[in-house]
Amino acid sequence: MPGYYIPGETISFDPNDGLRKRVENQCMADKGYAPVSIPPCPDNVARAAPPAATRVLPALGPESCAIRNRDGSFQIVNRG
User: Fold this and answer.
1) Residue 24 counted as domain residue
2) In whole angstroms, what is the distance from residue 59 CA to residue 53 CA?
3) How many domains does the chain have?
4) Which residues contact 60 (CB under 8 A, 6 or more apart)?
5) What is the pTM of this model?
6) pLDDT digits (tens, 9 = 90+) for 47-69
């Protein structure tokens, strides 16, 4: 019975990925930035807001929420 060859797979990875992310986060923190999580807006808020894409980030607070537009852009609104 003759032998046969099964090609292996090529796997690539970035051994510095974790370090690169930590350096990026530290650089952003040094400039005063911090990650935030903005919840999606309730349906009634999304329907009431005029369609637009956020170009300048508004001041964020506990009443801030995000609307995802059909084109993939976001609109951030303050509900208060």
Assistant:
1) no
2) 16
3) 1
4) 36, 38, 76, 78
5) 0.59
6) 898 888 999 888 999 999 999 99
